[in-house]
Amino acid sequence: MGDMKRAEANAKRRSRLLVRVASQVLKLRTSRDCAEIHRLTLEQLDFINHRLTVPCYLAACPGSGKTEVVGIKAAYEFSKWANPFRGIAILTFTKSAAGEIRERVVKYGGVGAMRHPHFIGTFDSWLHNYIFQPFGHAYTGYTGRGGDRGIRIIDNDSSAEFLHAFRTKALNHERPTNADQISLDSDGNFETSEEKAQRPLCANQFSYDEDGNPETSDRQLVGIVGAPGNRQELDRCKHKFWKAGFATYQDAEFISLRILSNWKSIAKLIAKRFPFIIVDECQDLSPAELRLLEQLQGEGVVVHLVGDLDQAIYEFRKVRPELVRGFSARHRLIRKELTANFRSNQEIVEVCRRIIGNQENIVGTGSGILTHTCVLYEYVNLAAADLPGQFRTLIERLSFNPIKCAVLARGKSTLKKIAPQCDSARKPVELYAAALNSYYGTSRSRTDDLANALEQIGKAVSYLAYIGRGNHQQQYCPDEMDPVRWRAALWDLLRRSVPLYPFEKSGVSLTWSKWAASLKGFLQEAWATLPASPVAWNQVESRVKAPRGMASQSVSSTLHHAPNLARVRTTTIHDAKGETLDAIVLVSSPDERSPGGHYEHWINAGPENAEHRRFAYVACSRPKHLLIIAAKKGRQEDKQQGKQKLLDLGFVHLTDLAEIMEKRGELAGDPPKRTDTRSLIFRENQNGQFLLSFPSNDPEASDPKPQFG
Q: What pTM was computed for the model?
């Protein structure tokens, strides 16, 4: 009886909260579809209705729709906002997440809701727009150029020639003691950190932590940058770099932190401008960003955090869950939870929970459509296993979309062994030819043909013009560029490439060598039209050449060997973070020498494996229907020891992936409902007000008074 009463009370409370949110948000909506509002759970509504003036931490499990909820929360708060000079900052760490939040705000608040005074975007962009660029010159001493005092951002791995002016003198060093202090120089010769120190160190190769101590991500330079005797020379080099109007992304964080601590008046201005800050994906906050938020909290800013601390996998940025927990405890953030996983079925949810050691009761609402959901599969030889091929055969039989499936591994070295012929090994010329073949060589009646063309040409241009830095989910759009502008540029390139297709001249098929020469001439003319200042043409033209061993072969006869978009993607766990997939294969490295890449690292307890377990947790929480761990087949005693732990987690050992079948008849069952909601119906009356009506079997249906927004 107690449970029934509790459920009844929760249903009534959810109805009241739903009315409050819907009546406020929907009155400014641009869409009459209120399905998303209707489906909100009590936990989601509780966060959306939570008062902005009371800081909180929303602990959200994978697949809980947290970014969607943050978007509706933003629309709800924006719709009530009255102050035209102060606003709410909604911060996240990826452009795709920021775009999803904006979509929700526009859907329910209209385009006007996105205007001043609020901000939705990445933490970096907010930092640059409101702290670093407006005030950075005051800290660095940069006087500007032509009245422009904007500081230019330089990548920490850039080796541009102008950086020679910002090099250190020879630095003190320590003799190498570890293997990771030995590397290869540009000529392929071994060098130690001692020898590397004899080369000048550029200002963009090191930065400062939140306490002002020099640091570097280059393991061979750690001992050099951290040596006390080098501090004065490092400071001289870095300040010269800053004074000339340059900085790295890490410098921008450090300088912004110093601005707020050195000039309290600026901190007060930022606090007045943004009295409320909501941070999505809070597990990705660096120590410097947490310190910055703490300084703003000291000036009265109310901070809300949203995320899953068990998905913190950016330790190279010193991201650590315990730092966020400490922040939450010190500032007494009220804990709220999202415990319904709308992505995965309960079997996958339970495996993830056991991997990470989570004691929370997470409910997987996905349906179990397969006879086996969590599978341990053993390979003999990783290089010869052809896992992507076997996986592709399986997902075709199960009618899964290959685009929504992936083969994942912790590191690129493992990926190279299982997919030596994957796209990363293909040259830009092959990718460009495949793009033209998909665009001009098909009827383009299928969406896949168009998507494939943009995918291939996007990767080719990204590799050549932007050093391969791009988001595969956005046709390899460079991080600093707007995806819409990027797609428009790719589309324009495709249309202007008419002279390059078909791959023949006067009816005679062109060889790769001759066609590559034509492509080089075309790209040289098109280079100036590419957006966002690409790499100079003379630095990349040598890469536009025939594929190795194929110079004399005809393009048309060999192009069919190039993979297309339907190929199963092989990528790292980092790359798949945040995605929802139908099925994945998580590949364990053949041995334990790869840090965090072997299944033993994912399942063994101890603080040394904490991040490795989080990597496995992120990977295993991606799929909706099928999770496969592929591990090397070992001796019988190994199977009884290490692999038994995988079986204890909930995996089933299969020797043949063909044993995975769809459930039929009664085995399939009906998928559970998405929420604990009752059916509620919104109607708009003639005055534009919203009426919420209840069906006859609802306990509140007896109330004769209609509720209006």
A: 0.75
